[in-house]
Specification:
heterodimer; A: alpha+beta; B: about 160 residues; alpha+beta; binds FE2/S2 (inorganic) cluster; binds fe (ii) ion
């Protein structure tokens, strides 16, 4: 019997580096609960949406941070607030609409109503009822509405993107992102108003971290996504870089499509067919935009909650919404910019066929995550291997490395204290 | 639709056409599927949320037979996915407009997905919003928008619905 098949008493990190990742980090419900607490509710800024989703006073959108339902709402002064969707009275998750416009937030159960900042404004029968000239019931005299508002989160906005945190003491957003990653954040969100194009949503039966890993894994695109390779979008000799923030929690995969001639090195995927041509080239009708400043694709992972995508002309946010240790909802918000021509909007929409739950180069990501989870569940005492490019954590100028995954788990171990 | 203008023969023809469509996608007979469309067709799979909010994003948005062919190439040759069978239950069509060469119609649908080793799951439920051309070669889809009610796609959507 080999070591691999023996069930260890303690499935733990048994080496100092993170080139081996215990399957248990994906299968253990208790670990998941701790992650929600330590990674989503404390210490981190989580994505909630785009300002463009709630342009007018009173506009709101219901979303989640980790597994807690929150409402992003624009108040009468035009400020964006994020409040928890749990009534201060008896705890009902009262907001049921996904989006809308409201003058106030009202819990239907007993009609407690809150202003658009989450402050409690009114409590029916607060002063009781008059019966036979006597006041009966009502709230105690010392009831202070100011103490019973909705949980108000801290909010950070930058470039039209809204993040929020349950943690009063979370570091400033810019520090959270860090200067290296802020550069790429600002490249995409450079102050132009965003234009909402719509959503794609999928429920992926796998641990949420697998999606972060997927976008920190430049090893797979040229191998799993045969479509990329078939139609010449992925080449192993594309100029590329892997970068991280100083904590190694956030990362960017930056690549620049080469013009490469026929003889340039492609990947050695057996299904590569050099002669394949699209019947309709509009799927890949790429127009270089000035703000790219070079890179044709930058995939940025902001830990733990969101992925910011630029793949040629297709730009989107991908929000990770866990539900249990073995499932998460993945919500894509596609957008464009206010100065887009109708042709550019058309192009962004057309290229969106590559992404999302039906996408030519994304549908397979959801599938492999599902089957990875299956592997973990059947062998929870085992571990995965992430030592492509070595066991160290370092930025690279090539794609043949799993360094970003190792970086993320180094950070994860520190946060989780394991 | 006024009953005096309802044409029984067209209604039966359309009903048969919808069932032929279901049979083609359920059998993964993609050549037949493509042939049911006009050359300058539109085919979209869009969430009800996007549809009702007039947001143009769709899970899949294809224009012209070339794109349909590229999609079929993608799902048969490039996209890695769990194999599955489809079973479409398409309700009786509801004709909303009729002219000598165009039928505007809608029909509810339910698509069940069955994976290898699995049991049938309700995969996608929605409504076809169609413009169907009457041509010399029979009916052809000018535009089909599959508006689905599901808030979430169950992981991935590979085959046309
Ligand atoms: S639970 Fe919300 S008003 Fe009573
Ligand atoms: Fe991928």
């Amino acid at each position: 019997m080999s070591n691999d098949t023996r069930i260890p008493l303690q499935p733990v990190w048994d080496q100092p580096d993170t080139s081996r990742i215990p399957f248990k980090v994906y299968t253990d419900e208790q670990t998941h609960q701790q992650e929600l607490e330590k990674l989503f509710y404390r210490n981190h800024w989580c994505y909630v949406g785009l300002e463009a989703e709630i342009p007018e006073p009173g506009d709101f959108k219901r979303t989640v941070i980790g597994e807690r339902s929150v409402i992003m709402v624009r108040d009468n002064e035009g400020m964006i607030n994020v409040v928890e969707n749990v009534c201060a009275h008896r705890g009902m998750r009262f907001c049921r609409k996904k989006h809308g416009n409201a003058k106030e937030l009202v819990c239907p159960y007993h009609q407690w109503n809150y202003d658009l900042k989450g402050n409690l404004q009114g409590v029916p029968f607060r002063r009781g009822v008059k019966q036979d000239g006597e006041v009966k019931g009502g709230m105690p005299k010392d009831f202070k509405p100011a103490e019973h508002g909705l949980t108000q989160l801290r909010v950070a906005q930058r470039g039209g993107v809204v993040f929020a945190s349950f943690d009063e003491n979370v570091e400033p957003f810019e520090e959270f992102i860090g200067p290296q990653m802020l550069h790429y954040f600002d490249r995409l969100f450079n102050g132009r108003k965003l234009k909402l194009l719509g959503y794609n949503k999928q429920r992926i039966p796998g641990n949420w971290k697998l999606m972060q890993e997927n976008i920190k894994d430049p090893y797979h695109p040229g191998l799993l996504h045969t479509w990329f390779v078939t139609f010449g979008l992925w080449r192993a000799d594309n100029r590329s870089e892997l970068k991280m923030d100083e904590h190694h929690r956030h990362a960017a995969m930056i690549s620049t499509r080469g013009q490469g001639g026929k003889n340039a090195q492609t990947t050695n995927v057996s299904s590569f067919k050099e002669e394949m041509k699209l019947n309709d080239p509009r799927f890949l009708d790429v127009e270089v935009e000035p703000w790219w400043n070079g890179p044709t694709a930058v995939m940025m992972t902001v830990f733990p909650s969101v992925i910011l995508q630029q793949q040629v002309n297709s730009v989107s946010t991908r929000h990770i919404q866990p539900n249990g240790h073995d499932s998460f909802d993945f919500v894509w918000t596609h957008f464009g910019f206010e100065d887009d021509t109708p042709e550019m909007t058309e192009r962004r929409l057309r290229q969106a066929n590559l992404f999302g739950p039906a996408g030519f180069v994304s549908a397979d990501d959801g599938e492999v995550i599902e089957f990875s989870q299956e592997g973990f569940e059947q062998k929870p005492f085992h571990r995965s291997l992430a030592e492509l490019g070595g066991r160290e954590i370092e930025e690279t100028d090539h794609m043949v490395s799993e360094t970003l995954i190792r970086g993320m788990y180094e950070y994860w171990r520190k946060q989780m204290e394991v | 639709m006024n009953s005096t203008t309802m044409n029984m023969e067209i209604y039966l023809q359309l009903t048969q056409f919808y069932q032929d469509y279901a049979a083609a996608v359920d059998a993964a007979d993609w050549d037949s599927w493509i042939e049911m469309f006009a050359d300058d067709c539109t085919y979209r799979i869009q969430s009800r949320e996007n549809h009702e909010r007039n947001l143009p994003m769709a899970a899949l948005s294809l224009d012209g037979k070339g794109m349909l062919k590229d999609r079929i190439y993608g799902i048969t040759e490039t996209i890695f996915h769990d194999p599955y069978m489809q079973n479409h239950v398409i309700a009786a069509p509801r004709i909303l407009g009729l002219s000598p060469d165009l039928i505007e119609a809608q029909a509810n649908y339910a698509v069940f997905r069955t994976k290898n080793d699995g049991i049938a799951q309700v995969f996608n439920v929605g409504r076809y919003i169609d413009r169907i051309r009457q041509t010399a070669d029979g009916l052809r889809i000018e535009s089909r928008i599959c508006v689905f009610d599901n808030d979430m796609i169950l992981n991935s959507l590979i085959y046309p619905i």
